[in-house]
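User: Structure tokens for this complex, please. No commentary.
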Amino acid sequence: MVTARGLVHAYGERRAVDGVDLALAPGERVALAGANGAGKSTLLRLVATLLRAQSGTLEVLGEEIADGARAARAGIGYLAHDPLVYLDLTARQNLELYGDLYGIDDRDARIDDLLDHVGLLGRSEDTVRTFSRGMAQRLALARMLLHRPRLLLLDEPHASLDARGAALLDGELEAARADGRAAIIVTHEVERVARVADRLVVMRAGRVVCDESTDGRDPMAVRRRYEEVA
Amino acid sequence: MRRRQLMALVRKDLRLELRTRETIVAMVLFAIVMLVILQFGFGTRDDDLTRFVGGLMWVTLAFTAVLGVGRSYVAEREQHVLDGLLASPVPRTVMLGAKAIAIFLYMTAVEVVVIPLVGVFFVKGSYWDAIGWIAIAALLANACIALSGTLFSGLALFTRARDLILPVLFLPALVPVVVAGAGATHAVVGGSPDMSEWRGYCLFLLAYAILFALVSIATYDAVFDD
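Assistant:
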């Protein structure tokens, strides 16, 4: 689903991502951890095709990103710190917009299902400006799932989700393995994400310093391992 | 698919504008204030300013365009939505087209107010007979403004000093539009319309719009992806 080789991205002189290799198979869920400034979010933005690598190769969902970024984007679901929705549109209008951008055939039925799923059906005609942070992020979760993405990219998702949203997200990540969807979850909450992740990848100073399985391991043990290497 | 994406983006811009009324209202008020200042600046009300009317109108519209174009990505920037659009499979040229259509419509709304007001403020002789010809030239000029404005606002979007950079890039690109718009207006105002001169300026505006459409299509991917 994702194959990165020697990926480099620099902001000026500073290499935020410095020669990263990463491979992700269908159904695999990776917890991507590291201290602030380690390069996690930059790597996620590269995979989301929001940044272009200055060197190295990146293949996402079978598409070489240098040539086929647009085709890959159709299969990526991206959840960022910000909900990526317009505050002055209603929840439904935002999802209609994204539904049209992704060319979803059963747009209206899908929107109703997802709004119900994230507990916002009753507020669907309200502008997002009237939502709490947690509600807006639940709408972002619906936005991310709207086009049935095969690859989920999540940037510290638990940081801004309320309890209900976090439970929904954990359910989605549990279901992802069975559906063959892959996920990269950037996180500081390693033990929490370890419950739903198959692998722990740790970055330090733009490089991957640890890439190992978490399957069957106690989340606290995963946390301790992270602290050793980070 | 592209048409659906284009219509969705245009609908989104119009919905946001209808809800907030931030851009068109600001543009219309700015244009009216500028016309009033120009009227005072040009002296007494007894003077007939018919021969200057093209310049007065198009300088006003050019500065109003800078204001409108400067606000064209405000919602995406301030509400941090741009990543959502860029992460979706929308061709960048569709984004360009949608913003250009929105700016075109905003400018048209401003001109519905400005073109008649110019007649009231500055013209003593024949004006109202020519208003249809002025409107046609204005629509062509709007296409130039929308296409060039979208390109430059996209370029300025990723810079820190965007509020400074946009007018510095955009105003020089508007000089040919002001010259041709003023020329087309001058050709039909004042009682003896010169339709061949008007046609020449309109063809120039059309060519300028096509030129900017081609430049934008060729460069817009690079603006957003690099």
